[in-house]
Design a protein that fits this description.
single chain; alpha/beta; Lysozyme-like; 2 domains
Length: 355
Amino acid sequence: MLRSLGLVGILIVGTACGSGIAMPLAESDQASTPAAPVAQQTEAPQPAPAPRAASAPRSATATRFPYAAQPEWLPTQTNYWEGRGGAPIDYIVIHYTAISYARTLRAFSIRASDVSAHYVIRGDGHIAQIVGEADTAWHAGSAWFNRHSIGIELELDRITNPAFTPEQYYAAAVLACAISARHEIPLDRAHVVGHNEVPGSTHSDPGPTWGWPHFMYLTSLCAPPTASTVHASFVSETAFPEIATHEAARVSIVLRNTGATAWRKGTSQEARLGISNNDPRLAFLGDGWPAPDRPAVQAEDLVPPGGAATFSFGVKGTRPGTFLVPLRGVVDGAAWMDDLGIYTVITVLEKSARF
Ligand SMILES: [Zn+2]
C-alpha cells in the first residue's frame, strides 16, 4: 500500500505533461506534493542518462528527411478505451512529457496514473506507439477530445532531454504526415493543436516551447497532397518553338507552388506537367516525355510551398503543322493544380520540298 501510494505520488509529479499542478486525477493531498524534491529523489541518483542505442548511429548517418515513420509497438494493457465510440479522428494533439521517456512509458502502463498517449517520441527521434490509433488514449484531459484525436508525447526532461531535438521535430512531422494520410486530417493549426490549446485545458504543454512554425513547415514537406493542398501560379514560359521537320526544341515552364504541400520529385508528391484532360493525341510531338499525356516532371528534388518548379520538355518536328498543346500542372494520384490556361504552340515547318 505504501509502495503504491509512493508510486502515485511520483506519477502525479511526473506525468502532468507540462504542469505538475494540473493533473486532473491527482488526489488532493498528493497533488500538493512539491514537484522538484520528488523528481530529484527519483532521478538524482543517476549520474547520467542511460546511453541510447540510437545515439551512436545518429551522427554517422545524416538524417534524410522526410522518411517513413516506423514506430516501435509497446502497447499499454490498461490505459485506453477500446474503439472511439464512433467518433471520427479529426485532431492531432502535441504534448511534452516533463519526465523521461522511460518513466513516461512506465506511467502509461500503470492504471493508477490514468494517462496515456498514442505515441511517445524520445529525444533521439525514436517513436514508441502505446495505443492503437483505432483506440482512445487518455491524453487530452477531455473525453470528447480523446475520442476525436491522436496524442503525441515528446520527451522533454531536465536530465534526459532538456530541449527538443531536430530528430524529435523530424519524427513528429513524419508521424503527423502518416496520421494525416490515414485519417485525412488536414495538417494545419486548426487540426494540429497543443495540449494547452484543447478547449478547457488546464495544461501548459507544449506552449511556445514547441517550435510550431518549424514543425508545421516540416509537415508541409511530407504531408499527403490533396485537392485542397495542391495549388500553383504561373511564373514564366519560354517562347513558342518554331522548328523544321526532324528538328527538335525544348520548352520550359516555371510554376510556383502556392499550395500547402511540397512537391517532391520521384515520390507520390511529384509535380508533373500534364496535357489538359489527359489528351494523349499530341504525344507524336514528344521527345522523351515521361508519358503520352505527361510532357515533364519537376526538375528540382524538392519544391516547398512558396518555391518554384521548372518543367522542361523536348518537342520534335514529326510532321508539318501548327499544334497547340494545352498544359496544366498535376500531382498524379492527388489533384490537378489550378487551371492557369497555360499552353505552348509548336510550329513545324515543311522542309521536304527543299533539296
Ligand atoms: Zn499534455
